[in-house]
Design a protein that fits this description.
This protein is of the alpha/beta class. The protein has 39 helices and 15 strands. Strand 10, helix 12 and strand 11 form a beta-alpha-beta unit.
Length: 867
């Protein structure tokens, strides 16, 4: 393959256009491959940092004599003086771009290369960005092109936006590529070859429509779609007719203007559309997960993917996406089944790093993405909702039409632009036949409290039945939503009674029914109203809260306090906000003040829920929550003189700060002292072993290895006496780690293998995965790379099965190091990046090492195993 080396030079104001150069090169790759040519694009960012004058460092590494093409772009900035002078005149260069251009120009005059392709951006300059001196230098620079006797006479081309530049550059670079290919082949490239390898840019976005307001929401969406954000994209949800699709399409066009993506794929499951003449049935482009994926593949020009089945199809589509920066817009996902929505969320989390997605749905979901709920409206969006509601209900339309469209803004003004308040007033007008538009305004204006929304809900209260009030009280405690059975039990309503209540509350726009599953939520303003009004009586609030807390304590015990709790992690994760809300309610109810406690029952229930969730919080990487909840439960148990429980809560907090998690010895020691103090009041032998063990781990953190081994051996002796196999395996592994840091690899290996034997005998998958990682580390230290790969593959497989995030990250990191050692940087980088993302979320002790590995791989460097 013959290289065609392209160097890009431009100041910072044309960064978008500079990025287009790589985009165009990627688009021309099929044609270049056919011609036996590699398009090698570089700019100043390709240089490795070094000392000296920055521009000289760049030119020394990216030698201009090696350039075949210089692509130079200028707009209104000329750049920062690089600190060098022009050889001919000794005048100082005005910018780094100028020095790069002049260097290339002088070479061209001597040898006829590099080819210089000059472009000037002519779009309007934002007033706050205009620097007159900079713009003057740009103007004078281009005058030297136009003058026959100028410093550098030549031809340049202009453009006025990034998309126009992309088309211009594509045409020019393709022409240059064909000329280059003709010289290599000794014959012209046939039109058939050009047509067969012509670049195709997938883009089936709907036509762009006028878009008003929603600046903050749009900014949130665009941030989630930016390269800096580590999510897969953004899930936009909200009530029907609130403008989810409109925002998604507008965000996609904004990304197109910025040149963030090369391809745009729009797939919708929308079944109908509201037009002025009524409801129009649509033929959805996709209704199932497989249809979404098939349609995506078709738009990308990969129809063969649809012939594959199951995981093979999904993996093939991910592989296709890796070659193109693609923005997926998936509309109306609530039409998918619950299982398919969950599968879609998993698939989106696996999107390649350069791809993003916008998903619209009426339900919250899509873990791993930014969640954006559309609520606060401007008048234009509010008007659209009014019109949509009118089309759904003839009685509402008649009332509003009778009032006249000019007065609809009065309704918006009186609800202060709150979508919930607006929807509720529309609900009142819909269900109360006698209520007129004027009557609704009179109700609103009659409120002397400045919070008009509160008055709206007070009016609704008059229409609520006893069951309605019970249901709202219970639902106000759920965060953010409740499953039907959970809601029914806390509200103490039968299934039939709650179903009838839901119909009423939904008609009044008080309850949001999440499509595709039996889950229900309150808008935030509705929740405030319920808590202020329906839970105002202390006894009622306490009874409802205690029922809510009891339900979630039982749920936590049932699904968290099991031997293999990783099997129920999805259930706990789905209901984590409610579990957290229950813990918060119990803490407030317990009212712990030093050595006194207001409600001992609530204090014990708080300990129960925290104890049941200890493995879930550890496995799922909720380490901040683990420390927070254990700290509270410790205080509660200490105040009630329940010393054994107090010791375990302090122990769990200490473990989170230990060397196996965040490696903060001072914080770990703080909690160890409290655990030991608590167990001194009557702890069991097992608790004595646990306390001694955590002391050993802290000694290891502080590099006091003799003390560490002594404490761990004491703990092991107690556990052997008690014949507790699983804890014995854990302490053996701890001893192996002490020997490992001392460089005693044979002894470490022996400890780890003995621990693994016990884990395998008891089928302790968590222990097995941990030991695989330890043995992989020993193999790496011995530079036994093939063996290290085997151990870390096992660790990753089992870590993913049980969902323990720190083990997944450790395995990915180890495999990345193996790939790096073997020279496969391209395979190592995605592994290292995935490991880094987990470590950043956990704020784990390995975070710095993971960052260094990613930086090294991204720069193409290579070094040995990290210390």
């Amino acid at each position: 393959m013959q290289k065609l080396r392209i160097f890009a030079a431009s100041p910072s104001d044309t960064a978008t256009e500079r990025a287009k150069i790589e985009t165009v090169a990627a688009m021309l790759k099929p044609l270049a491959d056919n011609l036996g040519i590699v398009l090698d694009v570089s700019d100043w960012r390709s240089a490795v940092p070094n000392m000296g004058r920055p521009e000289q460092v760049i030119l020394d590494q990216l030698e201009p004599t090696e350039w075949d093409v210089l692509i130079c772009i200028l707009w209104h900035r000329f750049g920062t003086p690089p600190g060098a002078r022009k050889p001919a005149t000794q005048a100082e260069y005005s910018g780094g771009t100028e020095e790069e251009f002049k260097t290339a120009y002088n070479l061209w005059k001597q040898s006829g290369r590099p080819r210089i392709m000059m472009y000037r951006c002519m779009r309007a300059i934002p007033p706050d960005a205009l620097d007159p001196d900079q713009f003057k230098r740009v103007h004078e620079f281009f005058k030297q092109f136009e003058a026959v006797k100028g410093e550098h006479p030549g031809l340049y081309q202009t453009f006025d936006n990034a998309e126009a530049f992309e088309k211009l550059l594509l045409n020019n670079l393709q022409t240059l590529l064909l000329d280059y290919g003709e010289r290599l082949r000794g014959a012209p490239v046939s039109p058939e070859i050009v047509r067969a390898h012509a670049p195709r840019v997938p883009d089936n976005l709907p036509r762009r429509a006028p878009f008003f307001g929603r600046d903050k929401d749009l900014g949130t969406a665009l941030h989630a779609l930016s390269p800096e954000d580590r999510t897969w994209g953004v899930l936009v949800d909200g009530i029907g007719g609130i403008g989810k699709t409109a925002l998604a399409v507008e965000a996609a066009y904004r990304c197109k203007e910025k040149g963030q993506f090369d391809a745009f794929v729009f797939v919708s499951a929308k079944l109908d559309r509201l037009d002025p003449d009524g409801i129009r049935t649509l033929t959805a482009s996709a209704r199932t997960l497989d249809e979404f994926l098939n349609e995506t593949a078709r738009i990308l020009g990969q129809p063969g993917i649809a012939q594959l089945a199951g995981d093979a199809r999904r993996q093939a589509l991910l592989d296709a996406l890796r070659s193109t920066r693609t923005l997926l817009v998936y509309d109306n996902l609530e039409t998918l089944s619950k299982e398919e929505q969950e599968a879609m969320a998993v698939w989106l989390r696996e999107l390649p790093q350069d791809c993003k997605a916008i998903v619209t749905s009426r339900r919250r979901g899509g873990e791993g993405g930014m969640w954006l709920r559309l609520e606060k409206l401007e008048w234009d969006a509010a008007r659209a909702i009014i019109e949509n509601e009118m089309k759904r209900d003839a009685q509402l339309a008649t009332k509003l039409n009778r009032a006249g469209a000019a007065r609809w803004s009065e309704l918006y003004d009186e609800t202060k632009g709150s979508p919930l308040a607006l929807m509720h007033v529309l609900g009142l007008l819909r269900v109360r036949a006698a209520l007129t538009f004027e009557g609704a305004l009179d109700l609103l204006r009659g409120n002397r409290d400045p919070d008009l929304q509160k008055f709206i809900f007070q009016q609704a209260r008059r229409e609520l039945t006893v069951n309605d009030e019970a249901a709202l009280r219970a639902l106000s405690l759920f965060t953010p939503s409740a499953a039907f059975d959970s809601w029914a039990e806390v509200a103490t309503l039968s299934r039939n009674a709650l179903e009838t209540t839901i119909d009423r509350l939904s008609a009044l726009s008080l309850v949001d029914v999440l499509a595709g599953e039996e889950r229900y939520a309150l808008h935030p303003l509705t929740r405030n109203f319920v808590r202020d009004e329906l839970l105002a009586e202390l006894n009622v609030a306490q009874d409802t809260g205690m029922r809510f807390a009891r339900y979630w304590v039982a749920f936590a015990r049932r699904n968290g306090g099991v031997v293999e709790s990783y099997k129920t992690v999805n259930l706990l994760e789905a209901e984590w906000p409610n579990l957290e809300a229950a813990a918060e309610w119990l803490w407030q109810r317990a009212a712990v003040r030093g050595a006194t406690v207001g409600d001992q029952q609530a204090a014990r229930m708080l300990n129960d829920v925290v104890s049941a969730l200890r493995e879930f919080l550890w496995f799922g990487g909720r380490w901040d929550e683990r420390v927070h909840l254990n700290s509270r439960a410790y205080k509660a148990m200490r105040a009630t003189n329940e010393w054994s429980n107090a010791g375990w809560r302090a122990y769990d907090a200490a473990w989170t700060y230990s060397g196996f998690a965040r490696n903060l010895p001072d914080e770990s020691s703080f909690w160890i002292e409290r655990a030991v103090e608590a167990w001194a009041h009557g702890g069991s032998k097992y608790e004595q072993a646990a306390g001694t063990r955590i002391r050993g781990l802290t000694a290891r953190q502080r590099e006091k290895y003799d003390d560490a081994e002594q404490f761990l051996q004491e703990s092991l002796a107690i556990l052997r006496e008690l014949k507790y196999e699983r804890p014995i395996a854990v302490v053996l592994s701890d001893l192996g780690n002490v020997r490992l840091v001392r460089g005693q690899y044979d002894e470490a290996d022996q400890y780890f293998r003995e621990a693994l034997t016990l884990d395998e005998r008891s089928q302790n998958k968590e222990g097995m995965a941990t030991r695989y990682g330890c043995l992989g580390l020993v193999a790496r230290q011995r530079e036994q790379w093939a063996e290290a790969r085997e151990w870390h593959d096992k660790e990753l497989s089992l870590g993913r099965e049980i969902g323990r995030q720190d083990l997944i990250a450790d395995a990915l990191y180890g495999l990345a190091l193996v790939q790096e050692h073997e020279g496969s940087t391209d395979l190592a980088l995605p592994l290292a990046e995935e490991a880094l993302a987990i470590h950043e979320r956990l704020r784990a002790s390995e975070l710095q090492s993971a960052r260094q590995l990613v930086e090294r791989l991204r720069s193409g460097g290579k070094s040995g195993e990290e210390a």
